[in-house]
Design a protein that fits this description.
alpha+beta, 5-stranded antiparallel β-sheet, about 45% helix, globular, disordered C terminus
Length: about 550
């Protein structure tokens, strides 16, 4: 059973840091931009909500750069409308990059803001019906696009008056200032001229040579142009070896020279960036921060843990796999021209294999983070009884024709676990799908969900093929150990159960074997025992 769950996978990831936020924003642009226009649902709405949330934290110039990437595919009128309602620079980049048909433009233009309609007017690939519609709407201006449009939208009579007043106040303040310090007429660049007196940290991006080409507005005048990674006659400036190998840089000590606000010791954390289509290295992005006093001591740094090394290895492996997947999708979707059907079929298989490999990498990284304590299960509340019931119904499409499945007994209609809904769905699906895939035709597994003090216990009988294994073999990873119609992952049943056990442990519960059964215990908020009632018993023939 194969599902296109790329959007759900992206939405499950929490965008906690700057780098992750930019990556997720780019992924949502690609997935929403290539989604069919008629596609609707809660997941699509959630994706647009997440896109709006990320837009509030990612600078406009970064989002414009993403929209202007060569591989950007913007074929969704809904996404174009959402972007056109944003900042003028975003609207300009979105309308210029949009790949819509004539009928789609006819439906979209009346819903666009007036400024965005003017940007559409500058396209030269519009059909006569679209141009006629723009004429009827009064959009006849064919002046210069881009900066002129943005200036006209942002500069008005009121704005000019406010800037003149600011100029007068600055001139009055300057009467007691130093000679030669003439006041500036404010033209909208105040955020760039305001340099913090105690600059403690700022974000940056470099080119392929390791030179800063972008920085936060307050630090940009002092930081842009600085060389972070280079070999000089005096030795190595920065971690040149990591730079040459295109590896992440963590907690690197660096001394910068320049204005007083930026001179001195810094700590650098950065990650390499790669073009999502070609896989070409484009530079580094990260953050420079002043080191804490404890970090400047002479004590040797602690060696990387096994989990850190695994995460770094997976990061390096993802880059070529992402590039392979991108090229395969280009061939399969004929983005660069007609392609024979045989090649498109091969490319589709390659793209599918790449997606499975990336999913396996995600599971490996998740296990490493859970075992090392670097990842915590998101807290919240979820109805575990409803999740189990829904999961069994979903699996029935596979188990029903085989005469297998689950005989379900739920002892309480409301069993609330103290973890987030997505986390509960992930653990239950991983456990039930793994056991359903390992069961034989006609084999029905008993399942019982019941309250247990301040927790909830889910007990499931093991399939005969797994019950005969010892504990080491049951939770051991082995590629292709048991062929399954419902895949437990590239690393087999044992790895999937081990990952489920780590997830349960991180949630404050446990997944353990009890002879020929597995018991999952999760912390929960349950009702008093007197209110318990026997649920219906369902199976493949119910």
């Amino acid at each position: 059973m194969h599902f296109d769950d790329r959007l759900a996978t992206v939405l499950r990831v929490r965008a906690d840091g700057e780098v992750v936020s930019r990556i997720q924003y780019r992924q949502l642009l690609d997935l929403l931009g290539t989604s069919p226009s008629e596609l609707r649902g809660d997941q699509i709405d959630a994706a647009y909500t997440r896109l709006a949330d990320l837009s509030a934290v990612i600078p406009a110039q970064d989002r414009v750069a993403m929209l202007r990437e060569a591989g950007m595919r913007l074929r969704s009128p809904r996404l174009v409308a959402a972007l056109a309602a944003d900042d003028t620079t975003i609207a300009l980049a979105a309308v210029q990059r949009a790949q819509l048909g004539e009928d789609e433009w006819l439906d979209l233009i009346p819903a666009l803001p007036v400024t965005a309609r003017g940007i559409v007017r500058h396209r030269r690939d519009l059909g006569p019906r679209v141009e006629s519609l723009l004429d009827r709407l009064g959009i006849r201006d064919r002046g210069l696009p881009g900066a002129t449009i943005a200036d006209e939208a942002s500069v008005g009579i009121g704005a000019i008056v406010r800037r003149i007043e600011a100029y007068r106040r600055a001139r009055q303040d300057n009467d007691n200032g130093l000679p030669g310090d003439a006041p500036r007429l404010p033209l909208g660049e105040e955020h760039m001229l305001r340099v913090p007196t105690g600059l403690r940290a700022f974000d940056f991006a470099t080119d392929t040579a390791g030179r800063i080409v972008w920085a936060d507005p307050g630090a940009a005048p002092m930081a842009v142009g600085l060389q972070l990674f280079a070999r000089t006659s005096l030795g190595v400036l920065g971690d040149a070896e990591a730079f040459l190998r295109r590896q992440p840089v963590r907690a690197m000590q660096l001394v910068l020279e320049g204005s007083p606000a930026i001179s001195g010791e810094w700590q650098l954390d950065a990650a390499p960036s790669f073009d999502p289509v070609s896989g070409r290295f484009t530079g580094y992005s990260g953050r420079l921060r002043r080191p804490a006093p404890s970090l400047t001591s002479t004590a040797p740094a602690a060696p990387d843990s096994d989990a850190d090394r695994i995460r770094q290895l997976l990061h390096e492996l993802r880059t070529p796999v992402n590039a392979i997947q991108g090229f395969a999708e280009i061939i399969q979707q004929q983005l660069f021209g007609p392609t024979p059907h045989e090649y498109r079929a091969l490319a589709a298989n390659i793209a599918g294999d790449s997606a499975r490999i990336l999913a396996a990498f995600d599971e490996l990284e998740r296990l490493a983070k859970l075992d090392s304590g670097a990842l915590e299960i998101e807290r919240g509340e979820c109805d575990l009884a409803a999740i189990v019931t829904t999961t069994v119904e979903q699996l029935a499409h596979h188990t029903g024709p085989r005469g297998s499945g689950f005989a379900v007994q739920i002892d309480d209609s409301e069993l609330t676990a103290t973890i987030a809904q997505a986390e509960g769905e992930r653990i239950v699906w991983r456990l039930l799908a793994t056991l359903a895939g390992a069961s034989r035709p006609g084999e029905v597994l008993k399942l019982r969900l019941r309250p247990r003090d301040d927790s909830i216990a889910l007990t499931i009988a093991l399939p005969a093929a797994l019950a005969e294994r010892d504990d080491a073999a049951l939770f051991g990873a082995s590629v292709g150990a048991v062929p399954q119609a419902i895949a437990a992952g590239m690393f087999g049943v044992g790895f999937a159960l081990r990952l489920a056990a780590s997830e349960a442990r991180a949630a404050g519960g446990v997944l353990e074997r009890r002879k020929d059964k597995l018991r999952l215990v999760l912390p929960g908020l349950t009702r008093a025992a007197a209110s318990h009632s026997q649920g219906a018993v369902t199976g493949p023939n119910a």
